[in-house]
Specification:
The chain is α/β, with parallel strands linked by helices and 298 residues long. Helix content is 43%, strand content 24%. It has a five-stranded parallel sheet, with helices on both faces. Strand 11 (176-181) and strand 12 form a beta hairpin. It binds magnesium ion (MG). Magnesium ion binds next to loops.
Length: 298
Amino acid sequence: MTGLLAATDLDRTLIYSRAAWQVDGVGPDSPVLDDLVCVEMLDGAPLSYLTRRAADGLRELRALALLVPVTTRTEAQFMRIEVPGGPPEYAITTNGARLLIDGVADPGWTASVGERVAGSSAPLAEVAAMLLAQSPDWMLRVRDAQEAFCYAIINRAAASADALQSLRGWCAERGWSVSVQGRKLYCVPDLLTKTAAVDEVARRTGSTLVAAAGDSLLDAGMLAAADLAIRPAHGELHAADWSCDGLAIAPTPGIVGGEQIVEWLLAQARSASAERSAGAAQARDNAGRTGAHGVQLV
Ligand SMILES: [Mg+2]
C-alpha cells in the first residue's frame, strides 16, 4: 500500500451531532438538513450525521485511499458509528491508546503506548481527582476513557477563564494537556497522541503520503506531522486561529465544512493516484528501454 493514507478525526470534522451543527451556525431551517445520513444511534435515537454528499464522497475516497478514522472516542463509542463504505480496516480510538485492526484492538500497541505514557505523565487517578475537586457549578461529571485519559462534562457558561487556565497549568506540570470541545473537557497525557498511532499505521501499511483532518487541539500534532492537512472553519483550532505549513481550511463552518473536508481529501487521493499511475507508466517505459538496451548488449 503506497497510496494516500487519509487520517481523519470524526466528531466535528466528519460527523456532527445536532448540538454541534447548531453551535457551528447551521440553523434548524437550513436546507442542508434535508439530506443528511445518520451514522450513529444512541439509546434508540439518532445522534450523529454527515451530509449525503459527504457520505458518497467517503465511499469514493475509500476506493482510492486508506481511510483511517482517528478519534478521541473510546472503542465502544467508536463502534457505534457506521462508517460509510463499511467497517474500516484500521481505526485509531481513545486518542491513540487503541489501534483497531478489523475492529479488534492490537494488544501490542495497547501495551507499548501504556508503557510510554506511564513513564512520562502523572497517574490518571491524580488528574481525575483534580477534576473532581473543581466546583460542581461547572464540572458536572468526570469519566475515564479505557484507563487512558479522563474527560468531564462541563457547564461551559459557568467555567471561568481563570479556572480553566489554572487547570491547564496544573496539568502541564504533570505531563497532561487539556482540550475543551463543546460540553466536554479532556485531560490527556502528552505522550498519548493521535500522531504516534497514525505513524504506526503508515509504517505497517507502507504508506508514504499522509493527509490529515481535524478540528481540536488533540488533532494539532497529527495535522502538523502530516504531508497534507485540513481543518474546518469552526472548533477549538479555529478559535485559536491555529495553523501549520500548507494547512487548508474548509471555508464553510458546520456540517457543510465536513462535506468540504471529504471533497478535499478526495482531491488529494485523486492527485496521488494520478501521480502513481504516471510513475508506474514511467517505470514501465524505463524498464522497456533497459530491456531493449539489454538485448542489444547481449
Ligand atoms: Mg473533533
